[in-house]
Specification:
Elements: E1 17-19, E2 25-27, E3 35-40, H1 47-58, H2 60-65, E4 68-74, H3 78-87, E5 94-96, H4 101-105, E6 109-114, E7 117-122, E8 125-129, E9 135-140, H5 147-155
Active site: 49 (cysteine sulfenic acid (-soh) intermediate)
EC number: 1.11.1.24
Keywords: Antioxidant, Disulfide bond, Oxidoreductase, Peroxidase, Redox-active center
């Protein structure tokens, strides 16, 4: 499985409706007209994913002021996402994709290198989707630490 299913700027962002940690459902279509930062992370409550989620939480104000909605997606069940959100005071939607359908639609699941070994799993990825539902930015294999700062810089958000 190569990079053939990866998205690029200008592509239509794949539509989805996923259950959120709070029991609601979130669909991309319901956010049309807004800019969306959609990020995929391997597992709730692991050190790297916690760091990344807390970075998004800590920068939510400036991102929201710039018109961005932040959504986190993992394969965790909503109950685990609710624990994660509560434990780390995460105030943006955490979405559950246990079947990995949305991960795969965005190219955020597949072969990756981990500690020099090739394996199949969740690829830490971030997508910026414009108000018309098009991919503005597609970032694959991002680092958990420092990612939000570099993304904010790229988006001109301070």
């Amino acid at each position: 499985m190569a990079d053939d299913n990866r998205l690029a700027p200008g592509d239509a962002a794949p539509e989805f409706t996923l259950p959120a940690a709070d029991g609601s459902s979130v669909s991309l279509a319901s956010l049309r007209g807004k800019k969306v930062i959609l990020y995929f992370y391997p597992a709730a409550m692991t050190p790297g994913c916690t760091k990344q989620a807390c970075d998004f939480r800590d920068n939510l104000g400036s991102l929201a002021d710039a018109g961005y909605e932040v959504l986190g997606v993992s394969k965790d069940k909503p109950a685990k996402l609710a624990q994660f959100a509560e434990r780390d005071a995460l105030t943006f939607p955490l979405l559950s994709d246990p079947e990995l359908a949305v991960h795969k639609a965005y190219g955020a699941y597949g072969e990756k290198k981990l500690y020099g070994k090739t394996m199949v799993g969740v690829i830490r990825s971030t997508f910026v989707i414009d108000a018309d539902g098009k991919v503005a930015t597609a970032l694959y294999n991002v680092k958990a630490t420092g990612h939000v700062a570099s993304l904010s810089k790229k988006l001109g958000v301070s």
